[in-house]
Every structure is written in structure tokens, then in C-alpha cells.
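User: Fold this; C-alpha cells only.

Assistant: Input:
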Amino acid sequence: MMAESNLNQILFFQEIDKILSAAKEQAVTMRLLGATAVRTRSESSKKMAEERMLTDLDFVAYRKDRRKIEKLLTKLNYSPSVSFNMAHGDERLLFFGTDGNLKIDVWLEVFRMAHTFNFKKRLELDYPTLPLSDLLMTKLQIVQLNEKDLRDIICLLSDHELGQNDDDREKINVTRLLEETSSNWGIYKTFTINLVRARELGPSYVQNGDRILKKVDEIFNAIEAAPKTLSWKLRAKIGDKKPWYESPDVR
């Protein structure tokens, strides 16, 4: 059973390579995000691979490439979710493998879940994934954080140092996090809640627990200390009397 699971995951990552190679050939910019992207960038996550099967693929791409993406994935034998793509195709596309098990989610610049982020200006900064800071943001924005997503947060922090810009692709750009948390109180609220969770539970998942705590504290303190916008301050006065997040479409 274990050998079968390992084989399935090998085939899964071979499929990713095939999609990314085809995208390059067609001059289509596609970057991984989600659990698969974390697995790609994190040695700690790879060590936990046997405990977690990956079955979904998430990409971010340019909106202008929508038709190219549809043609590319169809040629690779993926079936579009016609009704969903017609309704949401300006921001998001869904495709399914021939067996119905593998799902491909393509976000067109805008990532809209509990919170919304625009990655249009971030796609050229790294490959084959979004930059580490953006990967971390897509996990920290989850309001109902489950164990799998918490592990992804912890693995990213365990394996990568913190930085202040995008110059080093192997560092998490804390300034990028501050751009979002200093202008949007809702994002600030969710990020800080999840950083507290990571601080409480991080040491139980990885050996270098003290390093995790130090990084979490550094990010948390930077978020708290950063100057906030007027709109942030006005929303902060309302607090959690009003929902600060959206209910995401998790299809």
C-alpha cells in the first residue's frame, strides 16, 4: 500500500512537470501555489509526504492567458468544468483529470478565498511556485485552519529564513506580509490568529522548534509594529463585531 502511494505521488509530480513544460512551450506563465507548492519548496514537507497524499493542483496565471490555458489543459486531456468556468472564468478556472480524481484550479491573477490577494505583479519573481512570502500568505489567510494547512505554515517557516525583500528567493519576504496586514485589518486579524496557532503548535511538528518560535515572533512583532493605514484603523474600531473574512468557494 505504501509503495502504491509513493508511486501515485511520483506520477503526480511527473504530471506537474508535464503541465509546466507545456506552459513554457506555449509562453504561458503558470506558477504553483497551495500544498503542492509547499511540498516543492520545503524539505520538511517532503519528509511528511507519506502522511499526506496530494491530489489537487493549484496554479496562478495571467488573465490574458485564459484561452491559452484552456487550450493547453484540454490538449493534455483535462476536462473543463464548463458551467463553473463560464460563471467564474474572469478569475478562476477548474479542470478535472480523465479519472475524475485530479483537480486543477487556475487562479487568474486574483486569489479569492477568506481574503483576496492580487498576484499579477508576483508571477515573474519565482519559478515554479509563487514567491515564498505569497505561499505563506495563502496559508495564513485561512480562517478555519486545519492541521494540514498549519503544517504547511510550519514547514515553510522551518525551512526558510526571513528577509526584507524579494532578492533572495529562498527567504520569506516579511515586507510583503506587512503590505497586506498594514492596509487591511481583516487580513491582519486572520494572520495574527494563525501565527499564534503556529507558535503554540509548531514545536510539536518539527525538531527545530526554537527556530520556529523565533521566526513566528519576528513576523508577529513586525506586523504589530508596522504603521497602519486610516482604513485599517477605521475597520479596527468595528473589530470582530462584523465578519472580517469571506466564506470561500472551496470547489
